[in-house]
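Protocol step 4 of 6.
Sequence for Methyltransferase (Acetobacterium wieringae) entered exactly as in the expression construct, tag removed. Do not edit the line below.
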Amino acid sequence: MNPRENVMAVYRGQQPDYYGDLMAAVEFIPDPFFVRDALLPQDGQEYQDSWGTVRVFLPGAPGPHPHITRDNVVITDIEKWEEQLTVPSLDNLDWSTARAAAAQIDRNEKLACFFYPGGLFERSHFLLGMEDALMAYLEYPDEMKALLRVIADHKMAYIRKVAAETQPDIIFYHDDWGTKQNLFLPPGVWREIIKPLQQEIADTIHDCGMIYMHHADCILEPIVSDLVEIGVDIWQGVIAQNDIVKIQAITQGKLAMVGGIDGPKIDVENITEEQIRAEVRRAVDSYCPGGRFYPSIPNGICFREWNNGIVMDELANYGREYARNNPVA
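Step 5 output, structure tokens:
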């Protein structure tokens, strides 16, 4: 099987040649907004994104981050959000690079993937600041519903534009809804404010003929049934702090998952090669029996090159051995 065929065999619950990271079988289509907003010089200077949020990319950091202060926050008063928010236009974006990249992907071999960060929750705390956003979800639910309605409408319009311009196989939607310990919001608040709009976003992705892959490298265990109801096809970023075996039982094979290898546990100094290989084998042995599972490091790689090389080598070898010795019924 080629990479696309193998990935889709796992996705359909069929026999693959090997178990490995789905992300190794995708090619990315560049997002004009992301290129403009997040591909910043690594100079520690402040840059404003399309929504007005100030970001910085510190030297040595893995990526740019919002740098929100009382002086530069976009929305200073949630009750006045309409007069303080400027929604970026979808007109006059340069799609030439994205179209060219999409045209060069051999879709017989790979899946075309459009990375779409800045989901509803993340965009809300980019606009308000994390502390004020969390308080607003609890104290001003009506205003937050109205704000997220506008953000969701923008996202759905953009998804339709993405489909028209490049027609990816996968929308890789990014919204971290929690930490390694719990959700950011109580499940009831998430269900009341975010879930209905996320359902509309999922429907839009599916109406455009694309797979909805949701990145959240955090605890989502309390809302996994909701993910299935919404229509999330693949959860990418499943950290081992979730009870993954329990989640597989709850979701009954309706949610494909990518992750399971405890990256921070093995991306450390003074660890042996065998300890790294044992963690890869643990993830494969624990989660692949549940089906529709792609063992991987949830955030993609170990940042230490030596550690990452061992992970990839063990995954390539043991993932193939496991598939050979444990055929799908």
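Step 6, annotate. The chain has a mean pLDDT of 96.
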